[in-house]
Amino acid sequence: MSHSSQESEAHRWDTAISAVEPQLLYRGYPAEELASSQSFLEVAYLLLTGDLPSDEQLADWQALLFEGLTLSPAVQSWLRKVPPSATTIDAIHTALVRGQLGDERIVSLSDRDVLDTFPHWLGFVTALATQQPRIAAGNPLVQPRMELGFAANLLWLWRGREPSPWQERILETCLITAAEHALTPTTLAVRLVAGGGGDFVAALTAGISVAQGSGHAGVAGRCLDVLSEVRTPDRADSWVRQRISRGESIPGFTHRRYRVGDPRAEWLSPLCLRVAELNDRLDREDLASAIEQVVWDQQHLLPAVAWPMARLADYLEFDRSLFVPLYVISRMAGWAAHFVEQRRQPPPHPMRLHYTGPALRHLRRD
């Protein structure tokens, strides 16, 4: 085998889960079609198994999900001991590790197949994400409701109010849109753990650790900062020009894969306008549109998915401290699918590094 073909194999990861170009596909289905019509739980099942679930299969997953959404007394007691200063994502990370060290209700899942246990893990992380802030604020816990779907339960657990149908649909769309995106840094971390023989909790915590980085899921919060700093459409031109003159990027307008624009932003942006109308926030959309126009005029860049996603999360009344946990919850579907796929494949070829350090040298002997 030639050196060039060895290099090619060392960097190629085969997957049947998703394709990004020329369009985003989940197991062959256009992600935009799924986001506009399916539930997040149905799409998670598709990503893990390759097919959409039957009514019976979906009902089984919903039962497991509800079980996970109901925190045990032991976990509730532990959450009350978490310092109020701790972030929600730190509490989730610690709870998962703690579960491996002694909580029987969680440990019992680790030896079972991920395909069977995923809804429970999804529910558990969702319950932690929505209830830890309530406990930290001194508010009572909210119990999940069997008659609500996953997205509706997430909103119910967070706010303590039943969402409207449009709020549920918007959240379903956001969760599905962020559920999978090929070999992102978080997904690479998950696959490396799986390829090395680690268990699902180890892979999940690896993905969460990467997601905590400010250059990844945290960009959504910085998108809201842009809107807060610019304030009015007439200030957009000067604000963007000053940022560019300092050599700084505009949060929400860069993506590692897309040089011009993110196709996911194309189908979420019209949703922002519709939701803004329902929330009487068209001024926010006018401001966002003005910033988009200036960035295009100055840099020929279109928005990445975080730009509309941040506004949608804000319209749904999610605190920005929940932005990274929401990303984790949605991306868990893709992570689980990649974990299962990688465990069924031979260990991946090693990635090759190009050494740029000092040339050969020896210790000086006196």
Structure description:
- Strands 1-2-3 form a 3-stranded antiparallel β-sheet.
- It has helices spanning 3-11, 31-37, 40-49, 55-69, 73-81, 88-101, 104-107, 114-136, 150-159, 165-177, 185-195, 200-211, 219-230, 236-245, 263-278, 282-299, 306-315, 323-343; strands spanning 18-19, 25-26, 29-30.
- It folds into 2 domains: 16-211 and 321-343, Citrate Synthase, domain 1 (Orthogonal Bundle), CATH 1.10.580; 219-315, Cytochrome p450-Terp, domain 2.
- It is built from 18 helices and 3 strands.
- The model is unreliable at 103-111 (pLDDT under 50).
- The protein has 366 residues and is mostly helical.
- A hairpin with a 5-residue loop joins β1 and β2 (25-26).
- α10 packs antiparallel against α15, α10 (165-177) crosses α18 and α13 (219-230) crosses α17.
Question: What distinguishing features does this structure have?
Answer:
366 residues; mainly alpha; Citrate Synthase, domain 1; three-stranded antiparallel beta sheet; 61% helix
